[in-house]
Write a structure and sequence with these properties.
Helix content: under 10%
Structural class: mainly beta
Distance between the termini: 24 Å
Number of domains: 1
Strand order of the largest sheet: 4-1-10-9
Radius of gyration: 18 Å
Number of strands: 10
């Protein structure tokens, strides 16, 4: 049986058990703007913050943060960059939402940001869980998106068969997420 590349990818995605042993990866990104000032500035120092909920040691829902950093060269601005950063081993069904935030580190006084996510507790009740992360006053937020589990496991492919590009509001940055 012959399948197009798109159909083969869709079947592989749809036949995968949701929450199986596969992981979720920051696959690729493209920053179409340098986010740096000055004539001789290099590329941005990007922080990828993945916020998710889970159970603490006391079995109460709590927010967790995974942080990844990528120092771009000036020559990489406007080019597709392959990352393959594993951000999750497993996304359980009770975690309704996770959040990805990307910002350029520019320094300044420390601040704290909070992102809220929906989570279903041990009793089946939906609750809001907050995750906090540090940033600095002059940091520039580039991307801030809440993802549902369904988006990543079921609706993550564009009609072309390629991974969906999630873009920021200015269309100057995009990222793809892959389940491998």
């Amino acid at each position: 049986m012959f399948l197009s590349q798109y159909a083969a990818k869709k079947m592989a995605c749809n036949n995968r058990a949701i929450g199986s042993d596969s992981g979720i990866y920051l696959d690729k990104f493209n920053a179409l703007h340098s986010y740096e000032g000055g004539l001789s500035a290099g590329g941005p120092e990007l922080n990828f913050i993945w916020c998710h909920a889970g159970l603490s040691l006391s079995n109460s829902p709590t927010g967790f943060v995974n942080t990844y950093r990528y120092n771009m060269k000036g020559s990489e601005v406007g080019k597709e960059i392959q990352l393959d950063y594993r951000i999750r081993n497993f996304w359980p069904e009770n975690e309704v939402e996770n959040v990805l935030v990307v910002f350029d580190s520019d320094g300044g006084k420390d601040k704290t940001a909070t992102r809220n996510m929906r989570y279903i507790d041990l009793f089946g009740k939906e609750t809001i869980v907050s995750a906090k992360f540090k940033y600095e006053r002059r940091d520039e937020f580039i991307f801030d998106k809440t993802f549902t589990r369904k988006q990543i496991y079921e609706d993550n492919y564009a009609t072309s068969g390629d991974l969906r590009q999630y873009k920021n509001s200015e269309n100057l940055f995009w990222v793809t997420l892959a389940v491998k």
